[in-house]
Amino acid sequence: MTRIHGTDGSAAAQLLGKVALITGGNRGIGKAIALKLAALGAAVAICGRDTATLEATANELQATGARVYWQRADVTRSAEVAALVAQTESSLGGISILVNNAGIGLFGPIHEKTEQEWDTLLDTNLKSLFLVSRAVIPGMMERKSGDIINISSMAGKSTFAGGGIYCASKWAVQGLSGCMAEDGALHNVPIDTHFVR
User: Fold this and answer.
1) Which of 30, 83, 161, 189 could disulfide-link to 24, CB 3.0 to 4.6 Å?
2) Over the stretch 75-129, which tens digit does the pLDDT of each residue have?
3) What domains can be seen in the chain, in order of their start residue?
């Protein structure tokens, strides 16, 4: 289920004409980022797995005057990612800002974790970043501009007891982001990694 909201274009103009896609934009850090980008004038697309919070956040975003698109999507699935990107660009225009925010935390000693927990966490925290970036970068390359922000964690720079799987995912985000930055520099597509605690 998806919705798009039109506006009168009265949002602040700092990012006017930009389209931002925020994964996991329906709650927490992702919601805060979406609201800030909307306040700065960007058209904002959000996705997540919970329809109720997506719709509620979309209503908050619409109240800022931003053009808003929301879609329920599992960003660990390539077909859903492809549909999300295509429908976002059809509704709002080419994506100029991507915030890879979707993520989860699972903690405990590695010997107590299951293979399914490993797969779930790595798919959400790392594979989703790969899939969504891969879908968005060609358009940014074509337009010769764009910004990708990968939300990492201090766990991507340090270790702690019980953090094995989570730290592995965030260290991997750091490595992938660094290589994406090198690739992006060749095509004028900046890649930034932001840390959250």
Assistant:
1) 30
2) 999 999 999 999 999 999 999 999 999 999 999 999 999 999 999 999 999 999 9
3) 2-194 (3.40.50.720)
The two tokens of residue 107 are 């903690």
Output the six-digit token pair for 60: 């908050």
Indicate the residue type of 55: E
What is the C-alpha to C-alpha distance for residues 55 and 121, in angstroms, rounded to an integer? Answer: 25
Taking the C-alpha atoms of residue 55 and residue 37, their distance in angstroms, rounded to an integer, is: 18
Cα 117 to Cα 115: distance, rounded to the nearest angstrom: 5
Catalytic hit among 166, 167, 180, 184: 166
Whether residue 166 lies in the annotated active site: yes
Buried/exposed code over 43-65 (b: 16+ C-beta within 10 A; e: otherwise): bbbbbbeeeebbeebbeebbebb
